[in-house]
Amino acid sequence: MRRALSSLTLRGRAFVAAGATAVVCAVLFGQPALTRVGILVVTLPLLASFVVGRRRHDPTVSRTVWPRLLRAGETARIDLTIASDRRRSDGALLVEDSLPYALGGRARFVLQGLGSTWERTVSYPVRSDIRGRYVIGPLVARMVDPFGLVEQRRTIGGTVQLTVTPRVIALPAIPLSGGWQGAGEHRPQAFAAGSAEDVSVREYRRGDDLRRVHWRSSARMGDLMVRREEQPWEAHATVLLDNRHLAHRGQGPASSLESAIIAAASVAVHLERHGYAVRLATADGGAAEGAEAALEELATLTQSHRSRLDLSWSGESARGGVVVAVLGGFLDGDTAALRRIRHDAGAAIALVLDVDQWSPTRVSPGPAAAAAPLLSMSWRAAGLGPRDQLDAAWRDLGRSPVRGGTLR
Amino acid sequence: MSRRSEPFGPAFLLSVVAAVTTWLALTAWSGFVVVQSSYLKPLALLAFLLACSGSLLRWSGTPRWATALVQLLLTTVIVTHEITGSLLPIGGAAHELWNALGTSVDTARQYAAPIGIHVPPVWPLLFASGAAFIVLVDIVACTYRRVPGAGLALLAVYSVPSGFLDDGPQWTSFVGAAAGFLVLLHLEAREHLTRWGRPVGPEEDSLWHGHPVVEAMRAGAGRIGITATALALIVPAFVPVLGVDLLHLGKGNGNGDIQIRKPLVDMRRDLERGKDVPLIRIKTNDPSPSYLRVSVLNRYTGDEWSSGDRNVASKDVADGPLPRPQGLSQDVPFTKYRYQVDVGDDFDSTWLPTQFPAASVTATGDWRYDPTTMDFLAAKGDLDTRGLSYTMVGLNLDYGTDGRFFGNARTGDVPQELLSVPTGVPTIARSLAQSVTRGASDDYERALLLQRWFRQDGGFRYDLRRAPDGTGNQTLETFLARSGRVGYCEQYASAMAVMARILGIPARVAVGFLQPQPLGDGIWEYSSHDLHAWPELYFEGTGWVRFEPTPAGRVDSVPAYSRVPVDGGSNEPGGLPSQSSQPPTGSATGATTGPRPHRRPEVDTTNGGKVTTQESGPSTIVVVGGVALLILLLAGAALAGPRSVRARTRTRRLAGDPEQIWAELRASAIDLGLPWPDGRSPREIGTLLVDRLGDPAEPPQERPRTGADVAPEAADALERVVRAVERLRYARPATSAASAASATPSGGVATLAGPATLTDDSALVVAALQAGVTPQARRRARWVPRSTWGTLTRRFTR
Questions:
Q1: Which among A36, A115, A147 has the least Cβ separation from residue B233?
Q2: Domains of chain A: total
Q3: pLDDT given at position B133
Q4: Does residue A342 register a pLDDT over 50?
Q5: Where does the DUF58 domain lie (chain A) (predicted)?
Q6: I need a surface site. Which of A153, B30, B94, B196 has the fewest CB within 10 A?
Q7: Domain count, chain B
Q8: Residue A112 DSSP code
Q9: Which residues of chain A neighbour B178 with C-beta distances below 8 Å?
Q10: Distance from CA of A20 to the nearest CA of B (A)
């Protein structure tokens, strides 16, 4: 009974109160006509809550999200299939999917025309400009009476996760020296001496030069096979993101860390598209291999409370590769770490955020000044402010005066 | 403004349902008039037009206020047109409209429901107020989408007749209005659904392309609505109606005086009625019973005669002997006659028909009399004469014909009201009163001359059909003018009473029955055509004495004492040959039959059930004050009760063992609206609470800072409390006491005994928690502590 009463809406409660008052007054003052009205008004919500309260059967719901991994600013579709095998019909059912605030508007649907044993499919888009991992669901179903007097809510179905990765900005191609270990013309030589012949053939495609047919493999496979001229893993690059708490300013989506994450994601995707094996490293050490994994990692990346960069990823495995560092403000002790990275890397490139520009209280001398310490350590470096274009800064790096480790 | 995308259908449907609902509710008023179509037909037309225009306006996206304004204007135009014939209530039409409404109001006040067609029409009033309700419901329910609010308007429509009609409104109109209201509610709730979210259904584009009725039935609208309406029809039969009259509460301490206002004579309708309905049967030893008085009209306002105010004390009831009539000399010889009165079911009056003067009246029920008028009225609203049987002893006084008992009334014998002549009395009445009575030596002779003038010399005719309406000054003027002088008993009685007052004789008008028909064996019967009015004049020595100015065409004989010749003029017992060309009864009045016979005649008043009763001053104040005090006390208890309960519990618990202290902390947290997840360990809850601690020393802020660093002492205290609870719960029973004892000093903070420290600690924690929330939450915790409610509900559900 208490549960039934608690499901009354404000209107329902008002009806009960008004009706009860009317009945009491009618009895006290002897107005039978008023008794009628009072009883009608007081019984309506009670009957409605009784009728609605008897609908105990919950519908089943299944939810699919496509795609599960989403770039910020893109749209994903969520399909809901709601079904009930109840024999009685319920009239209308209001369903609302629980969405995090960042995923946009309310997903509310009125399922109507429900007979017995029904199934309905609804789909709606979600979109977020803020990276992160979001939980979608569960579904909240509201059962209402036809007069708006009663509303009962029930939670049905489970939840799914949706990962929104940071935005990625297309970068222009710039010459990156280093990282191409024995690349280019030296490759066939390596094949001739190496042992990876079997894996370095592929099926013949139209247009392949007949001189590249690998006859031995062709004989074995019964199909024309050709030698592969280049390999995707031949160059590797590391994107270092400085996510230390102390190196950044600002809060939330407007913080310098978010800009750094966008820059790192863009660089990682750009490098992978140009054939590099990309690895992501943060202040806490190596984080992810490959651009997709890096994006997923970046989607949920938070600030690190370390005061020093963890350089365990640097060393033999990274020797000779490209290192692109997305850096915030300089902290004490960074010089040594950066020198070591420069030493290990084939090419060391840095995008330095002029973090003081993100802070409302500090005054910054300008992006160029932020990049200056790195230049002195013979990195190729460019400064980046909140209003600067990332692709422009990247292009600047291509024209960077530092080359081959010599300071001009 | 572009709501044009909405389909027209739903808007039209809503408007039509609202209009029809109001119209159905207005059928509850049909008991007011005989010809219901007189107001229901134009109202139906109005409702239809309003629904059409309203739905068009709303569909086209006109702003709400503009829609409401246009609807109001349209209603005014239609009402004006229907009543006056012109379109706008400007100039003459406004005057005409106002007059028509005024006439309707007068008629409604003057006649009992149902009101027939032979009186000034009442339908303009019903039509205008019905139109107001229709447009009100349209604006509230359709334009402003507040269907429950419109329900109040419907309730008002419906409850009007329950105040005025005896059997209240018809159940059919209730069912109609209820069904309409439910449909309105459903339509509104449905529209709310479409706005709530995206409709997904077999017909995805709109709710209205499906089968709304089928949908509604699926949702249970039929089941719920029909059951509720049926219950509303059935249950009231089993609900006792107490009819407590709050204003009677003070009966014991006062004399329970009751004032009656304005009962109005509806005699003409009953006289005009074709059928002569037998009303009262008496059995008496009186050889020739005649006048039977029902009520007395004391007050002349210039518009009408009304009964004025009565002061009936609760001791003055009709349960036996009555005091001697006022002003009656002891020397007047009299004869006593017994009367056994049986009132038929058709005579519905809140006044008791009695002889005047009477020696005793014995009737069941709370019939009370005013000693100055000696008429009996029902002190309770539901008491009337239908089917009543009672006995009385009448005094048949013999004043003789020499006038020796008739002395001029002295100043102060009667209330001034009985002598007052309103300023608007026509001059012809004054001049005639003087000229007719010229030569008379005292008031008695003046009265005799007046009566003779009306019956003989004045050339008056009795004609019920050509008689003017009412008894006001204007009627009096035309009635007394030489060209007029046609009327019926009401005008004669009124004119004589007014002229007597002009001459300084206290006078009033009595209403009652004239002459019964003998049925043999001492049984007589008064019928509706015997209704009559006559003047009563006051003389020192005789008291109030009846005179009979109505000419012989209606009344053949006059009292013996008024037959005395004065000034040499002779006053024949039978009067002069009457000039009345119409016999008052029988075939002549039979021609004026109404469309259907009325259910019953009602002599006195429309407002028989509306006798307003008022307490005498002091007791009213006592009652009102008592009720107010009670409400204040209840409000105070509701406010202060939970607060004091909480305060007492807090003191008791804080002095108790750690478990009780923990319970108190939980209650405080719940009061303050802080999270307290049940089923967690004390330590977990402690870490939750630490973040909510504020500094008790700080002044209250809108958003106080919280955390362990803000209130380090409170955080430490909380830690100690948590440890104590943990020890109590989780330590082995044997060791808990010992370790508690050893732990307290190891805390190093207090050297006091354990429990006292814990009490202080917990008090500090509670204070810190209170300091850590917004002032609003703190106030809520103080006045409406949620934890008390939780305790109560848990106790009830167990």
A1: A36
A2: 4
A3: 94
A4: yes
A5: 200-341
A6: A153
A7: 4
A8: E
A9: 40
A10: 13
Decide if the complex's ipTM is over 0.90. Answer: no
CB pairs < 8 Å spanning A and B = 163
- On whether the CB atoms of residues A242 and A257 are closer than 8 A, the answer is no
What angle separates helix B8-26 from helix B171-196, to the nearest 10 degrees? 160
Contact at CB, A106 and B241, closer than 8 angstroms: no
* Same domain membership, residue A144 and residue A48: no
Q: Are B291 and B514 a contacting pair, CB within 8 Å?
A: yes
Cβ separation A113–B242 shorter than 8 A? no
Lowest-confidence segment of A363-372, B81-90, B262-271, B625-634 by average pLDDT: B262-271
B676 and B576 share a domain?
Answer: no
Residue B448 and residue B535 in contact, taking contact as beta carbons nearer than 8 Å: no
Tell me whether residue B603 is in a domain.
Answer: no
Claim to verify: residue B431 and residue B572 sit in the same structural domain: yes
Residue B192 pLDDT: 86
The pLDDT confidence band at residue B397, using thresholds 50, 70 and 90, is confident
List Cβ neighbours of A97 (8 Å cut-off, separation of 6 or more).
A63, A78, A80, A107, A124, A136, A137, A139, A140
Could you report the per-residue pLDDT of A97-119, keeping only the tens digit for each?
Answer: 888 888 877 788 888 777 777 88
Query: With an 8 Å Cβ cutoff, are B232 and A37 in contact?
Result: yes
Whether B790 has its CB under 8 Å from any CB of chain A: the answer is no
pLDDT at A41: 92
Task: Inspect the interface and report whether the beta carbons of B231 and A43 lie closer than 8 Å.
Answer: yes
Query: Tell me, what DSSP letter sits at residue B610?
Result: G
| CA B333 vs CA B292, B329, B395, B758: distances in Å | 21, 9, 10, 101
**Is residue B303 situated within a structural domain?**
yes
Q: Amino acid identity, residue B357?
A: P
pLDDT digits (tens, 9 = 90+) for B598-638: 333 333 333 333 333 333 444 556 666 777 778 888 877 77
> Residue B694's domain spans which residues?
623-797
Q: In 10 A of CB A224, how many CB atoms?
A: 15
pLDDT of residue B20: 94
Beta carbons of B159 and A48 less than 8 Å apart: no
Residue A178 located in a structural domain: no
- Prior bond of A232 cis (ω within 30°): no
Which CATH number do you get for residue A375?
Answer: 3.40.50.410
Residue B385 pLDDT: 78
Same domain, A245 and A358: yes
Length of chain A equals: 408
